[in-house]
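Re: that chain you flagged

S.,

Sorry for the slow reply, it's been a week of failed gels. I finally had a moment to sit down with the sequence you sent. For the record, here it is as I used it:
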Amino acid sequence: MGDTIGGMTSPSAVLGGAAAETGVDAVALTRGQRFVAIALVTLQVGLLLAMAATVATRLWQDHIWFGFALVGATVAVWLPELGRARARRWWFLYVAGIFAYTLLRAYADETFVPIRTMYVIHIDQAIFFGTNPVVWLQQRFFSPDRVTALDIFTVQVYWSFFIAPHLAGVLIFLWRRDLFPRYALLVVGTMYLGLVLFFVLPTTPPWLASQAGSLPQAFRVMDFVGGRVSADSYQAFYAALGEPNSVAAVPSIHMGVTFAMYLWARDHYPRLSPWLLAYSGLMGLSLIYLAEHYLADLVVGMACAMFAYWATKRLMPAQYAQPARAG
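Prediction finished late last night. Pasting the structure tokens below so you have them in one place:
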């Protein structure tokens, strides 16, 4: 069985590897040293969990200083770990990177750059010969008078974005820890490429363009479903995740990250890649139907994922010298 148990790294291998990396004999650690090591790891994990919890609340919006103070404290506590070749240091990149992305995203609509609306409408209409796909889908399948199973399903696909990539990261870390750094860099890299465009090209989504009169009859379906299922819960989640910047439409990070998951699986778990490609397709159709994004937004999101994928392969070429696992 060696150092793995069912594909997972055994605790003894982790302890031995950590000791080898630091040059410390794990057996020779005194009780005090063990306590300090455990306390440090607990603090590191606690700060990352605090970041994750804070993203899902209004705390960092109501007290913006708290968000930046949390970033500073986390960097200080994780700094000794970053110089060591341990897989867990990539959790710092993943969680702290996404948290910092969330903070910065809230400021992307507060610059001197004008907010744009019409160019994405024109692109989509040029592709579909004068027809806007958001309007076309909603005219045939959506009614503001009732909530259908299709409405609920597409909203569930939309919200799955806030679970699926992170659950995948945990599973990769547990079963194939050697591949987690590349996954973390790919996902976070995709998000930061999108962040650059949020600052450079703030763009209104279809539902907001419709409210301004630029796009006819495009409803934000999530408002109807959220109001029917649990209005308070929906408003709380939207206030935390969507309200800080309603004009971060280009690119679609939902599409970019789900497509990045497919690209990662294509290299390392080919049997999963068709399912993740189908998930990306469902995500794209849902985003258009819900009036959250145009097709052009989705294409730019996929382009961000492909660029991050290309860059990651060159930054971490050793992983691509290994044969891909079919499982």
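What I noticed first: The first strand starts at residue 4 and ends at 5.

Talk soon,
D.
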